[in-house]
Write a structure and sequence with these properties.
Layout: H1 3-10, H2 17-28, H3 35-45, H4 51-63, E1 67-71, E2 77-81, E3 88-92, E4 98-101, H5 104-116, E5 127-130
Parallel strand pairs: 3-5
Antiparallel strand pairs: 1-2, 3-4
Helix pairs in contact: 2-3, 3-4
Length: about 140
């Protein structure tokens, strides 16, 4: 059983065959797919699955805290499995590629900034947008 399917069961969610397909497709994703891409992948596994089922399943997983939704400025909601390990995102605005990264120095700087402004940081999201450097210059 994959991670997302296990989380669903732990939360008491009824797992239909189609929910299992969506869970497995999401667990296998190395990117941050939108619902239409999830549908394409799920449909290749189970041709009977509908896009409406994928939308409903994604919404259910998100409401249960199993998935995180991201808006990376391209007009599409993109998804990844909720993670206990914090990470940030660097988005290539030309290709839409998303790179996950962790930087301890940046994390500490964010805490210091919050403290300086009179806050204790409890959560945050960091999304950096850029273009690949032209290596010829």
């Amino acid at each position: 059983m994959d991670r997302i399917e296990t989380l669903c069961i732990e939360k008491g969610m009824r797992m239909t065959d189609q929910r299992r397909v969506v869970a497995r497709v999401l667990s296998a994703a190395k990117d941050h797919p939108d619902v239409e891409e999830l549908y394409r992948r799920a449909h290749s596994v189970d041709p009977h699955i509908s896009i409406a089922t994928v939308y409903r399943t994604v919404r259910l997983f998100e409401e249960a805290g199993i998935l995180e939704r991201h808006e990376f400025g391209d007009g599409r909601s993109r998804y990844e499995a909720a993670s206990e390990a914090h990470h940030d995102h660097l988005i290539d605005v030309e290709t839409g590629n998303v790179i996950e990264f962790v930087d301890d120095e940046l994390e500490e700087l964010q805490k210091r900034i919050a403290q300086r402004l009179g806050f204790r940081l409890v959560d945050h999201r960091m999304e950096l947008y850029g273009v690949t450097l032209d290596r010829d210059h």
